[in-house]
């Protein structure tokens, strides 16, 4: 049941990525290039997603518990540590090099472009390395 | 050159937002794709792999669902520089792992929860992305 819910929710997420144009790395790279052929679309994707999630989260988190679990699993950390800055900066460099982040990369898997088929295994190696560097407890799903 | 698509991007973004809210409503979890991807990796103690597998399967199916409905193939411009894409993937995976999230986890879910860590991470990876594209396109000419 949980598998099915996740499948449908993931499908919706992926359709959103495709409809928004974010499954095309060129659109991401052009967003990151205001001195070149700038394409501001990505700001509209994030804007649309955040507005819906901001309102939706408020409604959902008023409930005592989610529909299929006993508690909400929310990140609790508030501190700004060096890992957060370093991780985000490293992520941003990789994002700027390939125009891919995890969602669009997984969405593009079935289209089997050589660039994606190279990117994805490397991404999993990177995740694995980060996990062995930081310890498993830091992984709560974010 | 990519076309600026404000309406499609806003609509796609809204679908992503809806997906993020649904995952919270059903499972009580943040829809962070790097975290979901990491749950596919061993060890699996205390972290059920099946829901993550479902979510990723949904992402992978998404472009085919869209193509089946629209009848059009998807435009995808991905760098064929495979060493570059391998490096990009490695950095994206490692950075997302170290920083505890990516464009979805920090950029959409975290900002929608008004998490300071996520706002800071998003600004950091955006700036790193802008800087990287500036260097690769306008200084190195990659």
What does this structure look like?
The complex is a heterodimer of chains A (about 140) and B (about 140). With about 140 residues, chain A is mainly α. Chain A has one domain (about 1-140). In chain A, about 65% of the residues lie in helices and about 0% in strands. Chain A has helices spanning about 1-20, 25-30, 40-60, 80-100, 100-105, 115-135. The longest helix of chain A is centred in the middle third of the chain and has 21 residues, at about 40-60. The radius of gyration of chain A is 17 Å and the shape is globular. The two termini of chain A are about 20 Å apart. With about 140 residues, chain B is mainly alpha-helical. Chain B has a domain at about 80-140. Chain B is about 75% helix and about 0% strand. Chain B has six helices and no strands. In chain B, α5 crosses α6 (about 115-140). The longest helix of chain B has 25 residues, at about 115-140. The two termini of chain B are about 15 Å apart. The mean pLDDT of chain B is about 95. Chains A and B meet through α1, α2, α3, α4 and α5 of A and α1, α2, α3, α4 and α5 of B.
Please tag this protein with its features.
heterodimer, A: mainly alpha, B: about 140 residues, mainly alpha, 6 helices
Write the layout of secondary structure elements.
The complex is a heterodimer of chains A (142) and B (142).
Chain A: H1 2-20, H2 25-31, H3 41-61, H4 82-98, H5 102-107, H6 114-134
Chain B: H1 6-27, H2 33-38, H3 49-70, H4 82-99, H5 103-112, H6 116-140
Helix pairs in contact in B: 5-6
């Amino acid at each position: 049941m949980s598998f099915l819910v996740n499948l449908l929710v993931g499908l919706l997420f992926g359709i959103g990525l495709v409809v928004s144009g974010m499954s095309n790395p060129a659109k991401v790279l052009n967003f990151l290039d205001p001195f070149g052929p700038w394409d501001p679309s990505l700001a509209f994707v994030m804007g649309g997603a955040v507005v819906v999630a901001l309102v939706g989260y408020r409604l959902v988190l008023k409930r005592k518990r989610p529909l299929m679990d006993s508690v909400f699993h929310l990140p609790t950390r508030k501190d700004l540590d060096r890992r957060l800055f370093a991780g985000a900066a490293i992520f941003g460099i990789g994002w700027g090099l390939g125009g891919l982040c995890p969602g669009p990369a997984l969405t593009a898997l079935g289209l089997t472009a050589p660039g994606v088929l190279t990117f994805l295994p490397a991404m999993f190696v990177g995740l694995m390395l980060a996990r062995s560097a930081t310890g498993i407890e830091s992984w709560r799903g974010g | 050159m990519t076309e600026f698509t404000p309406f499609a991007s806003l609509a796609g973004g809204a679908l992503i937002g809806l997906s993020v809210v649904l995952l919270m409503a059903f499972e009580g979890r943040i829809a962070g794709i790097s975290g979901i991807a990491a749950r596919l990796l061993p060890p699996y103690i205390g972290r059920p792999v099946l829901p993550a597998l479902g979510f990723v399967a949904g992402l992978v199916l998404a472009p085919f669902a869209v193509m089946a409905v629209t009848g059009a193939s998807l435009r995808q411009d991905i760098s064929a520089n495979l060493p570059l894409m391998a490096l990009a993937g490695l950095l994206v995976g490692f950075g997302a792992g170290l920083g505890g999230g990516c464009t979805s986890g920090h950029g959409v879910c975290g900002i929608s929860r008004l998490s300071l860590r996520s706002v800071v991470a998003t600004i950091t990876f955006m700036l790193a992305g802008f800087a990287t594209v500036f260097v690769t396109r306008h200084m190195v000419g990659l």
